[in-house]
Amino acid sequence: MLELVADMMENDLILIGATAVEDKLQKGVPQCIDKLAQAGLKIWVLTGDKMETAINIGFSCSLLRQGMKQICITVMNSDAVAQESKQAVKENISMQITNASQMVKLEKDPHAAFALIIDGKTLSYALEDDMKHQFLALAVVCASVICCRVSPKQKALVTRLVKEGTGKTTLAIGDGANDVGMIQEADIGVGISGVEGMQAVMASDFSISQFRFLERLLVVHGHWCYKRIAQMICYFFYKNIAFGLTLFYFEAFTAFSGQSVYNDWYMLLFNVILTSLPVISLGVFEQDVSSEVCLQFPALYQQGPKNLFFDWYRILGWMGNGLYTSLVIFILNIMIFYNQAFRAEGQTADMAAMGATMFSCIITAVNCQIALTMSHFTWIQHLFVWGSVTTWYLFLLLFGMLPPYYSEDAHKILVEALGPAPIYWCTILLVTVACNLPYLAHISFQRCFNPMDHHIIQEIKYYKKDVEDQHMWRRERSKARQETKIGFTARVDAKIRQLKGKLQRRSSTLILPNCMPSPCQ
Amino acid sequence: MSGHMASSSNGGSGSGDSGAPRRNSKRPKYSKFTQQELPACKPILTPKWVVSAFLIIAIVFIPIGIACLLGSRDVVEVVERYETRCIPPAYANNEVQYIQSSVDKTCNISMTIPKRMKKPIYVYYQLDNFYQNHRRYVKSRSDKQLKSLKNENDTSSCKPEHLATNGGAIVPCGLIAWSLFNDTYIFSRPNNQNNQSLTVNKKGIAWKSDKEKRFGKDVRPKNFQGGGLRGGGDLDATIPLSEQEDLMVWMRTAALPTFRKLYGKIEVDLEANETINVTLGNNYNTYSFNGKKKLVLSTTSWIGGRNDFLGIAYLTVGMICLALAIGFTVVYFVKPRRLGDPTFLSWNRGPGSH
Hints:
The complex is a heterodimer of chains A (521) and B (354). Helix content of chain A is 60%, strand content 6%. Chain A contains 23 helices and seven strands. Chain B has helices at residues 47-73, 95-100, 135-139, 143-147, 175-178, 208-214, 245-251, 309-334, and strands at residues 77-81, 106-112, 121-128, 184-188, 197-198, 200-201, 259-266, 275-281, 292-298. The two termini of chain B are 64 Å apart. Helices cover 25% and strands 14% of the residues of chain B. By secondary structure, chain B is an alpha+beta fold. Chain B folds into two domains: 47-75 and 303-341; 80-299. Classes of the chains: A mainly alpha (521), B alpha+beta (354). The interface between A and B is large, with 90 and 86 residues. Chain B: One of its GO terms (cellular component) is plasma membrane.
């Protein structure tokens, strides 16, 4: 009835216009996704919106583009599914996945891109144990995956599937309470604080206020953090091996009775104040390249996923360096202070003198080593590194001034015994240089013949070649990214390829030689 | 439509007042420290730096090495091992019994001076295979007791050498003092017309801080070696500890099982090829543990006693650095890599490189 009335009324209307509601993406999201794709990350979208909305969002941030083949996996009939046809539905979905995989495998064009779009209902079948590996295999070869109408539980399940199925590190970012499951399931969970409340923030490892900050979080801070942690751990092993092994070597000379060559106080302070602050400053402030360069060269991010700085070669190399250092310190000190007088006044060295000298050698050698490792020296690093060495001498001086009840054999040892003895200072200089020589030779050699990317960029910056030769700098920046099929630069590249292809086809169909080919529109 | 007023509420709470003084922004205050933009120097290892570093080390180390070697070569040292020589033939297989008996243990040896030795000449005794650095030995002393008379009974850390058989505390207690070295040496020059005997100055052999701060002026030895078992020499009970320099020298535990300790100083020059006769009292028992005893006469130079190792080590490191400097210079000329050359970036070098 209503329809009849409407038919009668709605006649001879003039179309005035159309309105639309745009659910805008946040500022900077397409650029961020583009940068992350250039850094080599694979991006999936899990949303509760319906398929058309999700596809539109995919287009607006260049996860999808014209020319991408969209693979839609859906449940055929949306009627209430009877029990016995559940099996039929599953088989249907399985067949769709198989067909799609086949199509992808047979594709010959290397620049062809596929997008997988799947909705929540289908996902509930696809995530069952017998089908999930098949589904994951297809999803992994697609350039982008968009899951729509997903429930919070399914978001977590998809994240777990990717994490366990591929074995790669996963990061989940979301802003609502429905993202909490996914955020907690992923290796790294990032929550966006904002319009939808703080539940995502409270469940996450990192929280940011806008999506576009994810770019800086990963490409700048992620890159720096990886290097800092790798260097810190390797150095910690090195310095403790260098220190601890000298104690073991000395046991061979004490009939294995457990006497330590160092005063207890030296050993206590070693890891507390004398060698800990430089490492902390390395772990907090070290930058191999500045933040602008990190953002301009997304390919540098790949040094992390490829694990170039914490592979076994590097770890064992640092341990070997520690072993070598401990041997050099111990053997040189023993041989120099052997049994003869160590001063012009004829006194021979006792265990306190030998221990204090050995310890001075360790502190100086280990701190010079970290100075060679660092590449970014602020005033804090200078203060901590040189300050640690100075603190040791200050400590020795002040400890020696305490009454002998506290300082025992170390009473006045610097002022009276070691300070005026030239052999003490000569030994420290010799041991420090001998310990650091192999490392210095190694890094000189590596920088000369096998430089890594950040070395080259450091040199370009140091000699200001980026300012002199802007063309080269821009060219390298544009080359410094991973091959990717998503993001707007990929879209631009695809468009360029398409236009080139059209141009070639046009020029090949041209018969008359004196006609210029018409330019592409 | 004209009646349609612009809505007063802007869309969303994200956009604040435009340009109004109250920003209500939660953005943290910018500081160079928190944004990791502190001014920094970023040195890099260019070929210039590499070669200069190695060259400077070589230039500094080789002269130091030569100086140390010359300083060590200047030292004249005479070493005589005597513990096997000083056993009379009657006791050839019963050394321990000999040393523990009360037979007269005087022994005469002679030493030849190879080169002219300028005064002061230091006399050392060297012990081998004697672990003064053993943990229980090093612990076994009481610094409080050594320092002051009122702490006489503070002997707990000195066990087992803490109480005499008569129940009183041993002063100084502990294994270190108990095992005091007690061989004596008397030197003479038989061929010298002017002076036959050589006096050995036994003062000034201990550290000044030991004499003033660690060994008390009011503490005198008491019940020393009174624990039933004798471990070494005796101490004069009338002389306070702050003047017992032999004890102070002995109590500075050595780091290695082979060590020398200062016995005294000879304040005259000795000529080359001169023969020195030593009348020594072979009292100390090293035979129970196959230890060796040696007598050493040595001069010193600015670097101390004779040990070529420091000089040789400096020269070795200096030579290695020189070789590295030359090697790197050659390499940089033969196969130079232009610094900042972007062809070495991994995306320009082709697949399979990082």
